[in-house]
Write a structure and sequence with these properties.
It is built from no helices and 13 strands. With about 170 residues, the protein is an all-beta fold. The strands form 5 sheets. Strands 4-2-6-7 form a 4-stranded antiparallel beta sheet, with no helix packed on it. Strands 1-5-3 form a 3-stranded antiparallel beta sheet, with no helix packed on it. It has a two-stranded parallel ribbon with strand order 8-9. A hairpin with a 6-residue loop joins strand 6 (about 65-75) and strand 7 (about 85-95). The radius of gyration is 23 Å and the shape is elongated.
Length: about 170
């Protein structure tokens, strides 16, 4: 989870497809999003040496829960400015459960077309032992929900499925 002081690195090395021992190239770096900032404005590769590209995240911009994806583009630092490579960064800002929202989240009026999906990323408070999920639908509307719960390392821990019945309400305790 973002603290505002995140710094991460990408290691870049050349693939030597030209089979040459001598190589030198400068690259200009630019981000596709204002929340992803390369620390360096340019880097250079020499021979078989690798280079580290450092980047930071502006957590003030990433306030709303969701999935954020951006790239750092590297172009040649010459008149051609040919694109050479890009570096992808993906960050998740989860919905939080805390005393200010009474440890509750409500998602209303969600309508998703058949075959589509919507993801919610949740930060469950440390020490939580139970999770209650209520699912309901409007009268005469069929609704279905499939959910997967993962631990912070991305391993699936739980799966279940809801479908509305005659009473149009379902509750599960996890």
């Amino acid at each position: 989870y973002l603290t505002g002081k995140e710094k991460f690195s990408f290691r870049i090395s050349r693939n030597n497809t030209i089979n040459s021992d001598k190589f030198y190239r400068m690259y200009n770096l630019k981000s596709s999003a204002n929340w992803l900032k390369p620390v360096q404005k340019n880097v250079h590769l020499r021979n078989d040496q690798s280079v580290i590209v450092n980047a930071t995240i502006d957590s003030e911009i990433l306030k709303s829960p969701g999935l954020y994806n951006a790239k750092i583009f590297a172009t040649r630092a010459d008149k051609s400015a040919n694109p050479e490579f890009d570096l992808m960064a993906t960050f998740i800002v989860p919905y939080e459960f805390n005393s200010s929202n009474k440890y509750s989240q409500i998602f209303e009026a969600e309508k998703i077309m058949p075959g589509m999906h919507k993801r919610y990323f949740l930060k469950i408070p440390f020490g939580t032992s139970n999770l209650k999920i209520n699912f309901s639908a409007k009268s005469k509307d069929f609704s279905s929900l499939r959910y997967y719960l993962h631990d912070p390392d991305g391993r699936e821990k739980y799966f279940n499925q809801f479908e509305t019945d005659e009473n149009l309400n379902s509750t599960k305790y996890v």
